[in-house]
Amino acid sequence: MEIRENVFLKDYAWWKIGGPADFFCLPKTVGEVQEAVEFARSRGLEITVLGGGTNVLISDRGIDGLVICMKQLVGTSVHEDENFVRVEALAGTAKSELTKIFLKRKLAPALFLCGLPGDVGGGVVMNAGVAEQIEPREFVEIVSWVEVLDLQKNGVRRLRKDELQWRYRHTDGWQPGIIVKAEIIWPNRPDDTISRKVTEATKARRSKQPLELPSCGSTFKNPKPHSAGALIEKAGLKGYTVGSAQVSPKHANFIVNRGGASASDVDSIIRHVRDEVKRQFQVDLETEVRYLGRW
Ligand SMILES: Cc1cc2nc3c(=O)[nH]c(=O)nc-3n(C[C@H](O)[C@H](O)[C@H](O)COP(=O)(O)OP(=O)(O)OC[C@H]3O[C@@H](n4cnc5c(N)ncnc54)[C@H](O)[C@@H]3O)c2cc1C
User: Fold this and answer.
1) Residue 49 CA: which ligand 1 atom is closest?
2) Is 56 left (phi over 0), alpha (psi -120 to 50) or beta?
């Protein structure tokens, strides 16, 4: 496997933002991930993992050490009987691939997964989910186990779903490590309405979200019981712009890159939005987006 030096990361991030990684690789097998870990260990390099890059703000100054991008570690195997459908998916498998598998079988996870970008590993790390009251609506409901490459031992261990702690847009219990595989499971109970519902949900997302421009989806977590988007809109911040980054006029919790935005433009918006929402409503906003690299 090739490990390249000084690779710009904006091509691997949905925001199209990010400086260079000192070292960068795209493993295709778990063995190659282990090879990458060994490379970093032997040189004393820090490791940063990138999935689909749909939830990360990568610093303009880049990322020190080795970036392991999982998007080529792909593949699924499906096992089904009259009771359950089980899908073993390598971590870099796109969620859209899982959607196809469940859609073909008219199963409910297709509806939950159809609007989620990024890959399976990123979905587990973020406990990705949707706002709609549907079942399932978060990754915790569809995962039965994950396989994690332990960074200290450089060996793989399997963790059952109940050995992890699943919270709103976050999981614990697998770190330090790299998620390399997960099993997704769902009762084999076909529903003829799923295909129509997927079409409707996709249409609704397109009308509500600024999908025509690079973003990272929702920038902030919802500070329950409030909605982050509603607070930002009420604060009068829709359209607020720094450089080429902007609070989307279509959806206030999205920050869009209108072309050539820098990470510091986005970060300035994030800080301003936080300050204004705190000043006007006394509510603390926490980012859902993860900051990576040297800040
Ligand atoms: C248009 C748009 C709409 C979105 N809508 C939603 C939504 O409705 N609901 C929702 O929950 N999210 C949404 N998101 C955010 C995002 O898609 C999810 O959080 C997604 O699950 C992140 O997956 P990823 O593979 O892109 O992870 P990345 O963004 O690449 O990484 C996220 C974090 O996980 C870590 N990581 C990634 N893979 C691994 C691995 N294999 N092992 C260890 N660590 C890893 C990274 O270091 C980083 O800290 C949206 C994003 C966009 C751009």
Assistant:
1) 47
2) beta
